[in-house]
Specification:
Strand content: under 5%
Radius of gyration: 20 Å
Oligomer: single chain
Strand order of the largest sheet: 1-2
Order of helices and strands: HHHEEHHH
Largest sheet: 2 strands, antiparallel
Number of strands: 2
Amino acid sequence: MDPNHTATTPLAPPDAALASAVSAAAPTPDDTEAPYDLDGLAATVGTSTMLLASVARAGLLLPHHVDDDGVARYSAADVDAVRAGLTLLDAGLPLAELLALAGPTDAAVTDVAERAVEAFLRFVRDPVLGTVPDDEEAAARLVTAYERMLPATERLVAHHLRRRLIRAALARLAADAGDA
């Protein structure tokens, strides 16, 4: 789906169904509604709006969506994510270090997301559109594939990151022990 797509260029029915599924996506049960603006999110987690605005500018806090008035809206999943970030700060990670990690993290995750979308389009969407003559069946297949693949992708990426973090920590501890 082209982010620059405008309403003047209608999508084909299968792509329209897929776009609807992507737009309505609620990957976790606590991410189905977005009742908080930035001030409400800050109040809910007990921090300042200024801190959250800094984290958002750095790319670590993305809104669930932006409403018709242009206000960024956040969900319960965002509350959990912010609380996780506050845990890092409470443990002693300086805010400047968290923000310094934010840029490369956002860039890497953005790259992975863009590549995953391209792979989906090339290896799932395009073959479906090229082999299924009925728009309703194509739409159903695309939506089903998307609904299965999104959570699988999230689990795979989270698992990989966890393993990388653990291995990096163990390697660093072993190196520090060797230096002692």
